[in-house]
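**Backbone description:**
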Amino acid sequence: MVKIGDIELADFPLLLAPMEDVSDPPFRALCKEQGADVVYTEFISSEGLIRDAAKSVQKLDIYEKERPVGIQIFGANMESMLRSVEIVEASKPDIIDINFGCPVKKVVSKGAGAGILKDIPLMVKLTEAMAKHTHLPITVKTRLGWDDASIKIVEVAERLQDAGAKALSIHGRTRAQMYKGSADWHPIAAVKNNARMYIPIFGNGDVDSPEKAKMMRDEFGLDGAMIGRASIGNPWFFKHVKHFLNTGAHSAPPTILERVTAARRHLEMAVDWKGEIQGVLETRRHYTNYFKGIPNFKPLRTQMVTANSSAEVFEVFKHIEENAAVQEWMA
């Protein structure tokens, strides 16, 4: 059993990573249904929260069916981060996660996200202050370091644990790498194998197959996997990974009809939650994976990603359903 504070999870839990414009309530609900053990919100600006910015506040929406759910916040100003903890608490999440890993320039330039990897003392100070400021477990998502020359993740992890963090999710790349090259899980394993560490250590980065998840568990000895890009348009990924971990065999891919049903529900929930325009726009990125492997599908996918209304997309879904019987599934 793995525990984040008092939250009990199954052995080797699978976590849905916080992803901007992806990890919203509709998608989190679908991933939860397919086996995600913990889901995280999109990352939320502490400055946006204290200014009551509409987009930041909307991201605080969480629902009972998602639990356990973590709300992730980022920032580098102590006063703003502590105030945002109070605002986040009102939404009653199970976990508050601090983003010390986002590599995007507009975040890093403010000293937040992975930018704080240049100031480890501030990283530790913020974690300690926030852990003392709330009864909720504080977790941290971070990277190996700013660049190859500054990887001190074993020492940093110790200090974050001592500061009160209840779990760490570590992406196996530096900020300098962004998302290029391959994730290196060896430094994450070094954190886990440090005799001083007793909190859960979750691996993140390149978990894009059930085999990779098994490797993270069996060869690297990590406590769980945080899954990001592999789940986009593929909420079944969590179920497939769990089946493989339990049996050593691959489960059958979803049928065309199952894919259409999920995509339709996703769009319906997205439009209901964020409105017609944003719902249509932000669901587009999922369609390539929802319908991956269907022969001669490119014209239909083009219709989906260029449609300006949900009604147009629903018409495409209907067409796929009507023709599903004559399609061949291609793995």
